[in-house]
Specification:
This protein is α+β, with helices and mostly antiparallel strands. It has helices spanning about 45-65, 75-90, 110-120, 180-195, 210-230, 240-244, and strands spanning about 5-10, 15-20, 30-35, 40, 45, 95-100, 105-110, 120-125, 130-135, 140-150, 165, 165-170, 200. The protein has two domains: about 5-90, no CATH class; about 95-244, ZipA, C-terminal FtsZ-binding domain (Cell Division Protein Zipa, Chain: A, 2-Layer Sandwich), CATH 3.30.1400.10. Helices cover about 40% and strands about 25% of the residues. The strands form four sheets. The protein has a six-stranded antiparallel sheet with strand order 8-9-10-12-6-13, covered by helices on one side. A hairpin with a 5-residue loop joins strand 8 and strand 9. Helix 4 runs antiparallel to helix 5 (about 210-230). The protein is elongated, with a radius of gyration of 23 Å.
Length: about 240
């Protein structure tokens, strides 16, 4: 199947729902639950795939000689998938600010690496910098990133004589918890780096970033986060990461 799916069992011994793909084959279960994700970043589940999932579920129930209950009927599931996809498209937002060099010489890689590391940014995936944080499960979450303004975006460490005319900071609003705090951190970090590199902090239209601009953006972030809470998909939650 194209969409994320799973099979879970209610374990008789411990009274917990367990992922059967990781369970001991000797375990016994009172009930079985089959799941499929209705929408993700590639769009809603198709009618064909949902039909295939429904048929598979019916076959499993027949094989086990057990009754089956669907959480919603077929048409309701298609409507729910479409609603989720529209919600995703409407709210999925990448927030961007950039640092542009004041001089024609540009920004040197030596200075960029030195100052970025002083500000606590971590060099990593895709040869760019990230602000990272450990989540409750001790997994590392990327809060925002900083890349070369020009493709392919890399900030190579082996070419210290390289220059660039600008850097870009970016964050995905929907997939970080406390997005207002993360945005504030990103703006403050970008401002400090711009000052240290003698650059200018600008928005996507290359307008200098002002206080009123960041206040307006913060209000917009709060509105989006509130809508996600109302939908039961809080920003930065596992549900949000799966949908967006």
């Amino acid at each position: 199947m194209e969409k994320r799916n799973g099979i879970y069992g209610f374990n008789i011994t411990n009274g917990l729902w367990r992922n059967l793909e990781h369970e001991d084959q000797r375990s016994e279960y009172r009930d079985i639950c089959l799941t499929i994700q209705l929408a993700d970043y590639e769009g809603p589940v198709s009618e064909t795939e949902l039909h295939r999932f429904s048929q598979m579920s019916l076959e499993v129930a027949e094989e086990l000689n057990r009754p089956i209950i669907f959480s919603m009927d077929f048409d309701e599931a298609l409507v729910a998938a479409g609603d989720l996809d529209r919600f995703r498209k409407e709210l999925d937002t990448i927030l961007v600010v950039s640092i542009v060099a004041r001089s024609e010489i540009g920004l040197t890689m030596t200075a960029i690496h030195r100052e970025a590391e002083k500000l606590g940014l971590k060099y990593g995936e895709d040869n760019i910098y990230h602000r990272v944080r450990k989540n409750a499960d001790q997994h590392t979450d990327v809060l925002f990133s900083m890349a070369n303004m020009f493709k392919p975006g890399e900030l190579p460490k082996h070419d210290v004589d390289m220059h660039t005319s600008g850097l870009t900071f970016f964050m995905r609003l929907t997939t970080v918890s406390k997005p207002v705090d993360v945005y504030s951190d990103m703006i403050e970090t970008a401002r400090k780096l711009a000052k240290r590199l003698n650059g200018i902090l600008v928005d996507q239209e290359t307008r200098p970033v002002s206080e009123s601009m960041t206040i307006s953006q913060t209000k917009s972030i709060m509105k989006t986060a509130s809508r996600m809470d109302e939908k039961g998909i809080p920003a930065g939650s596992e549900l949000a990461k799966r949908l967006f």
